Amino acid sequence: AAPLKYSPNRMSIDENKTPLDDVTGYNNFYEFGTGKEDPAAYAKMMRSRPWTITVDGLCDRPGSVDIDELIRRFPLEERIYRMRCVEAWSMVIPWVGFPLASLIKSVGPKSSAKYVAFETLRDPRQMPGQRSAVIQWPYREGLRLDEAMNPLTLLAVGLYGQTLPNQNGAPIRLVVPWKYGFKGIKSIVRIRLTDRRPQTSWQMLAPGEYGFYGNVNPAVDHPRWSQAKERRIGEFFRRKTLPFNGYGEQVAHLYRGLDPRKLY
Amino acid sequence: MARANAARLESPAVWALCAAPLLLIFYWGFTSQLTANPVEFVLRDLGLWGLRFLCLTLAVTLLAKYANLPWLMRYRRRIGLWAFAYVALHLTVYLGAAHEFDWAEIGADIAKRPYITIGMAAFALLIPLAVTSAAAVRRRMKPRSWRALHRLVYVIAIMGVAHYFLLVKADIRSPLLYAAIVATLLGARLVASARPRKARAAG
């Protein structure tokens, strides 16, 4: 991990941060195994430098760019966000990154672009979890363009002031704090603007359990557990889960007129 | 002399092996090694050991008969009771730590989610087996009805695997492994019980 230069940001929340060891030692990244401790154990097999990211699809200036060049292009900010996993646990994580909107604006999206599709690296030699077809690789995620342009939506390149550890999605990952953690696709190699709603990995695997939106909603249960409460890592008693993970003020307007029960 | 000493150590050794997974949880607890989410970890670990001990209980009978280890039968009751203990502790952690004894929430969980319903039913079925394991109770029962009652363990093992299968998100390899183990253990019994009948029919 190398130190990053960044400025604080007013969108950060003022809650106790989850210790670094827990953020880096307990998470899901199925590319390295399905256990919570597999990412920390196996992610060193991945080379996160050099790394090229391709931005293409419905935009005026498609292209590929080296990750360090990309990081130099945008001023970095620290964003302390809540992270709510679909499995009913949560953390508070100080990310460092830049708004996804900045990147999208820089490639000149066409007016026909309505969605953004993301893909993780696919390389079973570096990602041993990909040797089993637990999900269909590469991992895919997607956002509506207006969700992608929301000022909260972050491309994170760091954590606790340092470059991202591999297990947390180095060198660049998505952070969408009002959505369940599985929407935060890691180790991104491709971002594509499109006019069609992209397929997402968890929806492909279990459409009855995971929707396209994945918005945090305490009123809509996962079929196998309630989403009403969550266990904040480091706390014994559970907390109530907040609609949109507490970010309703910034994002509820995006979903006006949509059936909230369809927003899981 | 040496053999007598070994025999004296046998029973405490079996006891220690059965208790080891539980002692390990306490050790990990005192040394902060229960992961960032200890409740979830302990819940899973106890549940897995409940299932493993159920499999062991089933395996004991087969090993005693067909692997020529008749002394194992002395410990079948104990291993079965440890299976009950691990399942009971798993349930206690589910009720107390995972759901903080929120009975409305727990009731909804049992009613809505098949894997919870199955898990609860499996535990309920284990209770009469644990109770009738007591020597005094067993003596009062007809051997035939005691055996019939304890065949419930076959159903319970299948329910345990189903409970595990249904809760897993995507990676079904581990529940599949337990399904295969239980299928083998029950299949071996089926084969064993079919054989003498065939022999009789032939004779």
From TrEMBL, chain B:
Q: Any idea which GO molecular function terms this record carries?
A: electron transfer activity; FMN binding; heme binding; metal ion binding; oxidoreductase activity, acting on diphenols and related substances as donors
Q: Name one Pfam family in it.
A: Ferric_reduct
Question: Can you name a GO cellular component term?
Answer: plasma membrane
What are the UniProt keywords, alphabetically? Cell membrane, Electron transport, Flavoprotein, FMN, Heme, Iron, Membrane, Metal-binding, Transmembrane, Transmembrane helix, Transport
Subunit details for this protein? Heterodimer of a catalytic subunit (MsrP) and a heme-binding subunit (MsrQ).
What HAMAP family does the entry give?
Answer: MsrQ
Query: Which branch of life, at top level?
Result: Bacteria
Tell me the name of the encoding gene: msrQ
State the protein's name: Protein-methionine-sulfoxide reductase heme-binding subunit MsrQ
Biological role stated in the UniProt entry: Part of the MsrPQ system that repairs oxidized periplasmic proteins containing methionine sulfoxide residues (Met-O), using respiratory chain electrons. Thus protects these proteins from oxidative-stress damage caused by reactive species of oxygen and chlorine generated by the host defense mechanisms. MsrPQ is essential for the maintenance of envelope integrity under bleach stress, rescuing a wide series of structurally unrelated periplasmic proteins from methionine oxidation.
Alphabetical GO biological process terms: protein repair
Q: Does the keyword Nucleotide-binding apply?
A: no
Give the protein's cofactors.
heme b; FMN
Q: Where in the cell is it found?
A: Cell membrane; Membrane
Q: Which family does it belong to?
A: Belongs to the MsrQ family.
Which parts of the sequence belong to the Ferric oxidoreductase domain?
46-161
Q: How does it sit in the membrane?
A: Multi-pass membrane protein
